[in-house]
Amino acid sequence: MRRKVAAVAAVLAVAGCGVSAPPSDATGEQIYRNLCANCHGANLEGRVGPALGPGSNAAAQPDSFIETTVLHGRGGMPSFRSVLDDDQVQRLIGYLREVQGE
Ligand code: HEC
Asked: Rg for the chain (alpha carbons), in Å?
């Protein structure tokens, strides 16, 4: 039991000091910076998590892959289902596509 609490705390710490929901009108870029940049890099270049920018695997995947990853988590990545609403997820994907296309 104790061990489980510690594991959850560790995940939250890595994700960046407590995951809080961004404002409902936050742009995709703001959402990325708040929730994703810690692990994927300020410029999508990758850190703990893989690169998401131009030429990455994520750039070659359909929107549904990114959506599923964000909502359900993947491997060492936490789920953001309880943090982001549908519109925010779509804005976030829009931001990734914008940077990938640069
Ligand atoms: C706690 C660190 C962490 C955070 C925060 C995080 N990720 Fe990840 N992400 C990972 C890791 C680690 C993987 C690799 C998972 C695996 O395949 O085992 C990953 C994988 C991914 C992938 C799949 C990449 C691929 O090529 O397979 C996408 C897309 C992604 N993350 C997007 C995001 C987005 C968007 C956010 C912000 C909402 C986010 N991640 C937040 C750690 C994180």
From this structure: 13
